[in-house]
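re: ur question from earlier - yeah i can do the single chain one, its not a big deal. heres the input i used so u can compare w yours
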Amino acid sequence: MFVFVCSPGPVRTVAARSIPGFNQMAQSAAELSPLRRNVTADDVAGLATFLASDAGAAITGQTLHVDAGHSVVAG
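and the output i got, formated as tokens:
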């Protein structure tokens, strides 16, 4: 059995852009991020694809942060 959590930061999507203030929040998040960018849906999908592949077969019981480094600086 495989168990993992994908914990994304704010993700720029079409739906998220319709939330009042999202663009300003996302810009601020990118400026504070160690990678200086926002997370995209493709970033999250890439992790899910990797975990579902043979290459991810030995990974279980983990929380994986897809947050452009926010969890590293937030502690």
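DSSP finds four helices and four strands in the chain. not sure if urs matches, ping me
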